[in-house]
Amino acid sequence: MPTFISWHTFNRCAAALVLLFLIAPILAIVPLSFNGGSFLSYPLDGLSLRWYAGLFDSPRWLLALKNSVSIGLASMVLATVLGTLAALGLNLTQFRFKGLLLAVLLSPMIVPTVITAVGVYFLFSRFSLVNTFTGMVLAHTALATPFVVIAVNATLQGLDRSLLRAAASLGAGPVRTFRRVTLPLILPGVASGAVFAFATSFDEVVVSLLLAGPEQRTLPREMFSGVRENLSPTITAVACLLTILSTLFLLTLGWLQRYASRMAAKSPSAS
Hints:
The chain is mainly alpha-helical. Helix content is 79%, strand content 0%. The chain has eleven helices and no strands. Helix 3 runs antiparallel to helix 8. The chain starts with a helix and ends in a 5-residue tail after the last helix.
């Protein structure tokens, strides 16, 4: 018993140290965003909200924020629709080379982003989609769709197919069955995929470096330029806000997972 307790304590301490190592950069950035001085240094030169005020008073940062939100929402909608349809097609039908098709759909997650960005750049340049919002949305959609496919595919694994057959036997067509039966059951997976899609688009910087023009600069692209050209403490305020946004994403995903577990426990197949 003492050996078990000491080993258990060691595991918990090791996990705490790893967690501290991972979040240490965040813990260092957040206080700097409230620094009253003009340099990124410790100890802090007083406390101030000047960098947050500078963020929301800057047309350059506000334009980047607007672009990130608009491109992220458009990419989220497209990726959610395409990813959901792809997951349904892969799970509800049987055909040859299904594994190969799934690998192709998930390839943007496996292939290094810089390779995908270069390929997208040369492809879009032929169709005059470089330096356009349409090109940015399509590129981000290609990167975000695999996350939707994975999330919806995981939810479909627990779907009771007898419910679909029962709906069909009662005269419901494929569209009505999807809208009244399938979609409510897989909604937590679809919502999780949508959150992942928006986060992927909102955080993407490599594609934005190659495809974005002056009017399409996103928030990560603006942060990259700020670090490289003019290191300003305003970047710490942006980083702090992005950290809060990421935390909200994680809380949302956790709530969706708990909701999906409750739905699975109430489903007829679980009884």
